[in-house]
């Protein structure tokens, strides 16, 4: 049985400093993975291990994670917003936690913390 783990690229980037600014404050550049979409997907596929329990019980779906990309691009404060169980939630969080540094978000030309949503899909083939 071949395992496919894909990532739906749909980052939602929200400035983590919004409580200090007007609600309409816009970042000038969203936090982003260093590299193109294909590199991002390859990272997820190469580093995700389909949990044995989920495989044995046919658990598939998309885990939505949330993380903060800090001013230096480090990933921190990882949380699962919507899980699917079977060990997939903790595996998605582990993969996100291990990501290399990102390009931080910019506000008025300065790096700022930003919240990103990263969906990680688990599919059995």
Automatic annotation (TrEMBL):
What keywords sit in the KW lines?
Cell inner membrane, Cell membrane, Membrane, Protein transport, Signal, Transmembrane, Transmembrane helix, Transport
Q: Where in the cell is it found?
A: Cell inner membrane
For this UniProt entry, the molecular function terms from Gene Ontology, in alphabetical order, are: energy transducer activity
| UniProt key word Transmembrane helix | yes
Give the GO cellular component terms, alphabetically. Answer: plasma membrane protein complex
What residue stretch is flagged as signal peptide?
A: 1-18
GO-annotated biological processes: protein transport; transmembrane transport
* Major localisation: membrane
Q: What does the record say about its membrane topology?
A: Single-pass membrane protein
Q: Work out whether the entry's keyword set contains ATP-binding.
A: no
Cite a single Pfam family from the UniProt record: TonB_C
All copies of domain TonB C-terminal, residue ranges: 35-125
InterPro entries membership: TonB-dependent_transducer, TonB/TolA_C, TonB_C
Task: Please report which protein family the annotation says this sequence is part of.
Answer: Belongs to the TonB family.
Protein's UniProt name: TonB C-terminal domain-containing protein
């Amino acid at each position: 049985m071949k395992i496919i783990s894909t990532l739906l690229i749909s980052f939602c980037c929200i400035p983590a400093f919004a409580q200090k600014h007007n609600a309409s404050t816009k970042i000038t550049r969203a936090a982003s993975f260093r590299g193109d979409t294909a590199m991002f997907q390859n990272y997820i596929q190469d580093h995700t291990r389909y949990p044995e329990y989920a495989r044995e019980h046919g658990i598939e779906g998309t885990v939505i994670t949330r993380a903060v990309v800090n001013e230096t691009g480090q990933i921190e404060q990882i949380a699962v917003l919507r899980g699917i169980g079977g060990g997939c939630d903790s595996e998605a969080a582990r993969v996100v936690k291990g990501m290399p540094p990102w390009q931080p978000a910019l506000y008025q030309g300065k790096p700022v913390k930003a919240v990103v949503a990263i969906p990680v899909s688990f599919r059995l083939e």
